[in-house]
Amino acid sequence: MHLLLDSGAVNEIREASSWGVIRGATTNPTLLRKAGVESITRFVSSWEPSWGTLHVEVFAADREGMVEQALRWVALGKPIAIKVPCTPEGLAACRQLAQRDIPVNVTLVFSLSQALLAAEAGATYVSPFVGRLEDHGMKGVQLVADIRNGYDRTGVPTQILAASLRNPQHVQEVALAGAHWATVPWDVLQKLFHHPLTVDGLKRFDADAAHLQD
Ligand code: G3P
């Protein structure tokens, strides 16, 4: 399972990318606003291709507007995927973009039926929101497993990108449930590194290394 950073903050993306553990970033209007981004066009323009793929979300109300926004951002020549909501207009836009070989991430997915529709519309990625389902007392990780099972039974090529992950346990569980990708917020990415035995082991190695030459 590959990782993406769920963030609109360039400093976070740059640093996580330098660690060699992410293959790009996912954004949405909320994350961009939180990061102080005012123009998506400027944000896409500043994207470094070495950071991987940038998933950027359209926010127009209808399919024509969504396709227009997407084509404008694609024309900037960066490695991007277009996020569209799992609505009739969003899926109509997905179909049109997929016909132009533009990778589309269908987002705000909360059921297997929505994931099946996204696949039919030609989505490259489908994003089930694990944490938000759990906020409403439903089983988010189980949805990832169900989508994987449903897709595999008929050879659907759409890749599952688990989103709305709130802790390291979510990341581990969606990997075991068959997600191809997981997008993780900055704080969760940091926690993925952490293990008390690594900290303790490093302390002991450092103490002994003080008596050695390289
Ligand atoms: O990519 C968007 C998604 O990860 C949102 O997460 O925590 O706002 O439910 P959250």
What does this structure look like?
The mean pLDDT is 98. Helix 4 crosses helix 5 (88-99). It is built from eleven helices and eight strands. Helices cover 49% and strands 17% of the residues. The chain has a single domain (2-209), classed as TIM Barrel (Alpha-Beta Barrel). The longest helix has 14 residues, at 140-153. With 214 residues, the protein is α/β, with parallel strands linked by helices. The protein binds SN-glycerol-3-phosphate. Residues 6, 26, 28, 129, 131-132, 163-164, 183 line the site of SN-glycerol-3-phosphate.
Key features?
binds SN-glycerol-3-phosphate; eight-stranded parallel barrel; 17% strand; 214 residues; globular; alpha/beta; TIM Barrel
Summed up, what is this model?
This protein has 214 residues and is an alpha/beta fold. The chain contains 11 helices and 8 strands. The chain has helices at residues 10-18, 29-34, 40-45, 63-74, 88-99, 112-120, 130-135, 140-153, 168-176, 186-193, 196-209, and strands at residues 2-6, 24-26, 53-57, 80-85, 104-109, 125-128, 159-162, 181-184.
